[in-house]
Amino acid sequence: MCLIAIALSSHPAYRLIIAANRDEFYSRPTTAIDFWDDYPDILAGRDLQSRGTWLGISRRGRIAAVTNYRDPSSMTPWGKSRGQLVKDFLAGDQAPDNYLAGVKQQRDQYSGFNLMTGDPDQIWWYSNKSSAIVRLSPGIHAVSNHLLNTPWPKTETLKHKLLTLIGGKNVIEPYEILDLLFDPAPAPDDRLPDTGVSLEWERALSPIFVTSPGYGTRCSSVILVDAKKRLKFCERTFITDRNCPKPGDTRCFELQLP
C-alpha cells in the first residue's frame, strides 16, 4: 500500500471511511480480496511472495494497513516482510496500541514503514522512522511513503477530494471513492518531495494513481463502516498497461461487525 486516506468520525452516517491505492511491481504475484483459507477470519488481498497483505479487516472488526517509507539509503534487504505486520495484527487479539509497541521493539528488522492498526472506532499509527505511537484524532488523515500527514501533493489532494465528497453526501457509494483514487495527474516539479530517487521517479510516483514501466497502482480499495457497524469492503484491480491503465474486476464484501 502506498497511499491511504482515513476519515475517522468525519461523517454522521459513517464511523470510518478508508480510501487506499496499492502500488507494486506488476510482476509480484497477488490474489484479489477474499477470505483466506488459512486464516478464515481475515478478509484481504494477498501478496503471494511473502504471504502477507497491505490492507485488511477481520470478522471481529480489526483493521490494519501498511505503506512503505521511501528512502533508498536505508533499505533493509534482509528484513522481514512488512505485509506480515498487517496479517499478524488481524489474526491476533492484542489492543492496537500494545501491538504497535511490540512492533516498535523490532523496528530495526524491517525496511521503513507506516503501520496503522485499530477498529472502526480507533486507529493508531506507528512508523519505524519515528518514535511516536499516535492515536488518530477525528478528522481526515493521509499517509503515503513518508510520515503521517506529511503534506505531499498526492496526500493533500486525496484528503481534499475525500473531504469534498463526504461533505456533500448523506450516502456514500464505494464506486465514488474508487473513482477518486483513479487520478493519474502528476504533481508539478516545484512540489515534488526529495526522497533519494531520481527526478524522473519522483515525477512518476507523484500521482494518486501511479503508472510507469513495470510498476504502478495494482488495486484501489474502499472500506466503509456505518453507524450500525455494517462494513463494506471493495477492491478494484487494474490491468497493468502503463499507456492506458484499465479497471479490471471490482469485488465487494459486506459484513456485520460485532
Largest sheet: 7 strands, antiparallel
> Number of domains in the coordinates?
1
Distance between the termini: 27 Å
Strand proportion, as a percent range, falls in 35-45%
Question: Which class of secondary structure composition applies to the elements?
Answer: alpha+beta
Series of secondary-structure elements, N-terminal to C-terminal? EEEEEEHHEEEEHHHEEEE
The overall average pLDDT, rounded, is: 95
Query: Count the helices. How many?
Result: 5
From the spread of the alpha carbons, the general shape counts as globular
* Helix percent band: 10-25%
Supply Rg: 17 Å
Which CATH first-tier class would you pick? Alpha Beta
* DSSP, total strands: 14
At the fourth level of CATH, the homologous superfamily is: Penicillin V Acylase, Chain A
What is the CATH topology? Penicillin V Acylase, Chain A
- Note poorly predicted spans: none
CATH architecture assignment name: 4-Layer Sandwich
